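RECORD TYPE: inverse folding
INPUT: structure tokens
STRUCTURE:
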């Protein structure tokens, strides 16, 4: 199964990749801090303006490791929105090395702009790398979803795969977390963010896991397919 084998590569690369990320972040995914990042180690806070916001919230896969900012998948989503005439701003709130706990700790910072309408949640790869308890990851992601929904922010959940070295039972439980949360909180789910990209050398950078420009375009298309109806719903409301 492509996603299953790709998860092993995710684990290996996320262990060393964060230090190279263009965004200031923890130097090692395996030791990412669970505390909210200080201003000196966080992406710049989003500028205040009147446009409704879509916050892309995640780790190095969201931050765009190895790519210039304009090539990251949140930037490509912005192009889709602009091309189709949507008056939305996409904010890249990806920080390399983030676990679900670290993301939970900095969520209020990411949602500080009162115009946020949609939150894209892409977290869990680093939990899988460290073999952290699946139930803890589930609690953290649930807290993120609940906090967003309390603010009347729609949530799009992006699924990830666990590395196989912790066994098939762990991998199945890890995968099921995303499906359970999507059902419990009635949020749209992309089952595997790297679908059609993972495991393909021609669509990934030299590290073998982070998508290259072409791979990132596929990721953006995958996300946009589920995001567009959510944007339409916000406009309709």
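DESIGNED SEQUENCE:
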């Amino acid at each position: 199964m492509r996603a299953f084998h790709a998860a092993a590569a995710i684990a290996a690369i996320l262990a060393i990749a964060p230090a190279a990320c263009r965004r200031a972040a923890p130097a090692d995914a395996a030791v990412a801090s669970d505390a909210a990042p200080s201003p000196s180690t966080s992406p710049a806070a989003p500028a205040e303006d009147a446009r409704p916001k879509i916050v892309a919230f995640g780790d190095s896969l969201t931050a765009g490791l190895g790519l210039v900012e304009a090539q990251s998948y949140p930037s490509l989503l912005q192009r889709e929105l602009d091309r189709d005439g949507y008056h939305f701003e996409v904010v890249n709130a990806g920080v390399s090395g983030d676990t679900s706990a670290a993301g939970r700790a900095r969520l209020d910072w990411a949602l500080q702009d009162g115009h946020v309408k949609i939150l894209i949640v892409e977290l869990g790869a680093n939990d899988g790398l460290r073999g952290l308890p699946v139930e803890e990851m589930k609690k953290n992601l649930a807290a993120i979803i609940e906090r967003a929904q309390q603010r009347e922010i729609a949530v799009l959940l992006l699924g990830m795969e666990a590395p196989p070295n912790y066994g098939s039972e762990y991998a199945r439980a890890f995968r099921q977390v995303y499906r359970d949360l999507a059902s419990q909180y009635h949020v749209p789910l992309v089952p595997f963010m790297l679908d059609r990209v993972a495991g393909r050398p021609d669509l990934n950078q030299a590290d073998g896991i982070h998508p290259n420009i072409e791979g990132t375009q596929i990721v953006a298309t995958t996300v946009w397919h589920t995001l567009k109806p959510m944007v339409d719903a916000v406009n309709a409301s």
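NOTES: The chain has a mean pLDDT of 85.
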